[in-house]
Amino acid sequence: MNNSKPIDRLHQFLYYFILFLSGFVIYQFQIEKSFNLLSVYSTVLLFVCIRPFSEKYAKSLLPVFFSGVLYYLYPGIKFLYILGALAILLGILLPSYNFRIKISLLLLVGFILSFIYIFPNTAFEQIRYVPFLMGSLFMFRSISFIHEMRFTKKEISTIDKINYFLLLPNLSMPLFPIVDFKDFVASYAAPNFRQLRRGTLFICRGIIQLLVYRFIYHYIVSPISGVENIADVALYVASNFLIVLRVIGAFHICIGLITLCGYTIPDLFNNIFFAHGFSDLWRRTNIYWKEFITKIFYFPLYFNLKKRGEYVAITISTLICFAITWFLHNYQWFWIKGSFPVQIKDLIFWGVFGVLVTMSSLWQQRKLVHKEAPKNKVQTSQLIQLSLSSLLVFATMSILWSIWIAPDIAAWWQLLAHVQFITWKSLAKLGAWTLGYLIVVYLYHSYQKNKNTRFKTIASHLESISVYPYLVVIIALLLAQVFSQKKIQYGLLLKPIITEKLNKADQENVDNGYYTNLISTNDYCTQVWSSDLNKDKKRTKYINQNITIMTNDMMLCKYIPNKKIAIDHILYTVNSEGFHDIEYSRSKPLNTYRIIVLGGSYESGNGVNDNEDFITLVENNLNKNYTIKKNGEPVKVEIINMAINGYMLLQRVYQYKKYATAYEADAALLFLHTNYNQRMINYVARLLYNNNSVEDPYLAAVIKNKQLKKSDTEATLKSKMGFAPDSLNAYSIRSLATMSKQDSILLVGIFLPAVKDPINSSDLQNFMQLSKQYQFPLLNLENVYGDKKKKDLSISEIDFHPNKVGNDLIAKKLEETIILQQDIFNLSITKK
Amino acid sequence: METILAETKTYISTQLLDDASFPLEYETALISSGLIDSISTLKLVDYLEKKYHIEFLPHEVDKDHLDSIELIAAFVQSKMN
Predict the structure, then answer these.
(1) Which residues of chain B neighbour A279 with C-beta distances below 8 Å?
(2) Is the CB of A365 inside 8 Å of chain B's CB atoms?
(3) Range of the domain at A49
């Protein structure tokens, strides 16, 4: 590459320049920041720079670079644990010995790693990243490796084998598991211009696809609640299918990086949105996966079955391969996320897709048997037919995809019901989109069919000229970023796509607990997934998924008794009654003042360790630092935390009914936050949606009078309910006030502002009015957070539940308030 | 060998390709370029098995042996020997 002509050197310089600019775009636009893409990218760039001077050792240097990034991402002892695991797995895989023993040893290691992965223990939690990483590197490649090594007669160097497993992009992209071993090894070449160009173009393509994905995710994908008519349904299903661009873009960057490392592996996606048949789509989508399934499963099955006839062999082999694909997707998800979700919608997606591909393959087989003579010239009618077929495939796959991403089948059916709402405007929109798609796909097929004849010149230079549009786009992106920083009007439009953020729909879903208990094998396409990967960032969601079960009553859900989970050194323990607290006997011990806490996620302390939530801190501090007397007799204060994540006011009424007298409470602390109206609508929607029995007479009357239905979207419920959510909240508080008076239990309201939205005076005014009306005291913890910033008080940038600092501040303020207002509790509290 | 090359080329261009004007050469990449897919590959294997009385094993259906007419002919020849 160094002995090239000046013009070639100029081209090389251009590509190096684009590579550096692309790195800058990755940095500025925070592309795959959650997955540490920048560190992997910079390392590959460094490797590319030194490679021409050290080609002799370049292959051997790759594991060193891999280890460097590994150490950066997992420093200290973590690095050593990973190295140990890598040594064990490579030690099993690389030497030549009996395959059965090799497979048995691999299964044994896999079993041990999966045990570490799923066993809720703090000791294992510290090394939980080991199975995650090993899964990402070995879960499929070890299968491809063993398969090829069984049959290959070629000598393959150990360094090629090591490099096959230690792919640098895997450190940033855990979902990039399959590469064909034979293709990988055969693809190595010394640095050359074509390799540099191909790698750079893949990276540029990937970056642009990821930014287009962000644009679609933020500006086109709408919340399910916003779907009203046939055009909205079409836009919803199509845009949600289009965000698969995230996977495509990320994988293209991986291919580019691997190519720059010397291994020119093949393309992975081939214009999937333009496929003209279902088997054609299967061939264009994740080509590595398709080849892996074909090689390891399809061909052996087909050869076994072909004596029964080609049609039978194709049908059975294809259907079995789709069943295997479904299973392996869940197997993959197990290693990436630690769960093996078996869901009806997954079965429907893979089942229907499998049947469509089988039918398409049989049709193709039939066409080959009754083949017409090939045509010399591509006819317009042929192109129109192909374009219409593409439209059919795109529409079918969008619908199928919408089933896959829906929370469940009923929700999907509810969405689809909106196609009956047809207006002229919606039909015009639908027609325009369809026509637009058909024009694009027609041009695509026209190019594809004529690229060896009419468009031969363009096709042969396409790779070399495509760099210029990429260069223009990259420079434009960087300029736009500058405009955005300077708050220039049009630059601001780009703001949502400059960083990794949840779109409005997902943020709404997270806030409303939509993702509670929702474990899907495909939500990588949303930004929720990236935050989910780092569970500590979205701890509330993780806790909900692992510790909550649904009930069929007014409570909607509850904690699983005696459940214990650990997340990155943080332990979350539920007692035998289903409270996030230590064990308490139901009968109150002598000389005890017992307080129960009715609250939601803030009070249940899911951002912090078991003993670091503000309820426990206040309980411990009061008993440790103060002498507490009731009627002159010293007492110990017990504060039983009955708060459950996501509990609304009406759920707390039933929590009170069930436990307040049973636990002989003296007082009940009712924590009040903000934005309860929207959350009440969400609560009613979930009650209706899950067919829970509505035993509450007031709510039952609201449902009847307002004609609320299970099939109503949240938007419809909101418009039908009008002021009802407000009245339901007031009703809940009134019920608690009445019941507590009857039970002689002191009800104390506590206004605790949210970290996300600390100042909301209208909510406070409302609670003050209710406290006056129903005669219960209200303690105000306004200004609890002082001057602290939201980011310093939250668990993460997307989960605004209070962290340790937040809990400490709340505990301090609550303790001071209780001491100040001790008369309310009829207690005497003095410093020891 | 020449016969295998010519017969295979004729079979592929008339039975597996849609475009008669495609400039198919002995060294043209068939599988890696996406010119023929897995169903067509199996059809080709079936043709070669019947035509030359040979038998493929599942792992032999890959780019190493079938990615070009040259490779196919060489593989068929080695099987026949």
Answers:
(1) 37, 39
(2) yes
(3) 31-186
Nearest C-alpha neighbor of A250 from the set A198, A197, A196, A172:
A172
Task: Please state whether A807 falls in left (phi above 0), alpha (psi between -120 and 50) or beta.
Answer: alpha
Decide if B40 and A368 are in contact by the 8 Å CB cutoff.
Answer: yes
Let me know if residue A177 belongs to a domain: yes
- pLDDT digits 0-9 by tens, A437-487: 999 999 999 988 887 777 777 777 777 788 888 889 888 888 877 776 665
Look at residue A36 and tell me if it is in a domain. Answer: yes
What are the chain A neighbours of B21 within 8 Å (beta carbons)? 376-377, 452-453
CB contact under 8 Å between B21 and A279, yes or no, is no
Spell out the residues 6+ positions from residue A274 whose beta carbon is closer than 8 angstroms to its own.
Answer: A390, A394, A441, A444, A445
Residues 6+ apart with CB under 8 A from A585: none
Q: Please check whether residue A13 is in contact with residue A5, taking contact to mean a CB–CB distance below 8 angstroms.
A: no
Residue A478, in any domain of the structure = no
pLDDT score, position A313 = 94
Nearest-Cα residue of chain A relative to residue B44? A368
In chain B, positions 23-42, which contact chain A (CB-CB < 8 Å)? 23, 32, 34, 37-40, 42
Percentage of chain A surpassing pLDDT 70? 88
Nearest by CB to residue A364, choosing from B22, B39, B64, is B39
- B75 and A CB contact within 8 Å: no
The C-alpha atoms of residue A752 and residue B35 are separated, in whole angstroms, by: 66
Question: Over the stretch A309-328, which tens digit does the pLDDT of each residue have?
Answer: 889 999 999 999 999 999 99
Q: Label the pairing between strands A778-780 and A592-598.
A: unpaired
Q: Does A294 contact B63 at a Cβ distance shorter than 8 Å?
A: no
Provide the residue type at A805 as one letter.
V
Q: How far is CA A561 from the centre of its chain?
A: 27
What is the pLDDT at residue A778?
Answer: 94
Torsion angle defined by CA atoms of residues A816, A821, A824 and A828, in that order, rounded to the nearest 10 degrees: 80
Whether A376 and B20 lie within 8 Å, measured CB to CB:
yes
**Cβ count near A562 (within 10 Å):** 12
Of A151, A266, A377, the CB nearest to B32: A266
* Cβ separation A283–B20 shorter than 8 A: no
Contact present, A629 and A827 (Cβ < 8 Å): yes
Q: Where are the domains of chain B?
A: 2-80
The structural domain count of chain A equals 2
Q: What is the mean pLDDT of residues A305-312?
A: 91
Examine residue A434 and state whether it is found in any structural domain, yes or no: no
CATH number of the domain encompassing residue A685: 3.40.50.1110
- Among the listed residues A397, A310, A322, A400, the one whose alpha carbon sits nearest the alpha carbon of residue A362: A310
Give the N- to C-terminal CA distance of chain B in Å, as an integer. Answer: 12
Domain boundary among A153, A186, A219: A186
Contact B20 A183 (CB under 8 A): no
CATH class (in words) of the domain with range B2-80: mainly alpha
Residue A440, C-beta contacts closer than 8 angstroms, at least 6 positions apart: none
Partner residue facing A371 (CB), from B15, B59, B63: B15
End-to-end CA distance of chain A: 80
Does A303 contact B32 at a Cβ distance shorter than 8 Å? no
pLDDT, position A808: 93
Boundary of a domain, candidates A139, A171, A186: A186
Shortest CA gap A368–chain B (Å) = 7
Which chain B residue is nearest to residue A150, measuring alpha carbons?
B59
CA dist A374 and A169 (Å) reads 43
Which range in A513-527, A784-798, B50-64 is most confidently predicted, on average pLDDT?
B50-64
B63 chain-A contacts, CB cut-off 8 A: 182-183
Tell me whether residues A375 and B20 touch, CB distance under 8 A: yes
Q: Which of A150, A279, A376 sits opposite B21 (nearest CB)?
A: A376
